[in-house]
Amino acid sequence: MSTVEKMRVDWVDIAKGICIIFVVMMHSVLGVENETGTQGWMHPVVAFAQPFRMPDFFLISGLFLSVVINRSWLRYIDRKVVHFAYFYVLWLTIQFVFKAPGVVAQDGATGAISAYLLAFVQPFGTLWFIYLLPVFFIVTRLLKTTNVWLVFAASALLETLPIHTGWLVIDEFCSRYVYFFAGYAFAPAIFKLAAKLRASPAIAAIILGAWAVLNGWLVFHPAPAPFSAWIPQETYTSGGLGGWASVPVISLIAGFAGALAIVSSSALIASVPWKPITATLRWLGAHSIVVYLAFFLPMAAARTILLKTGIITDIGTISLLTVMSGVIGPVILYRIIQLTGYGEFLFKRPAWAHVDRAPHQETAQATAAQ
Question: What is the value of pTM for the model shown?
Answer without folding.
Answer: 0.89
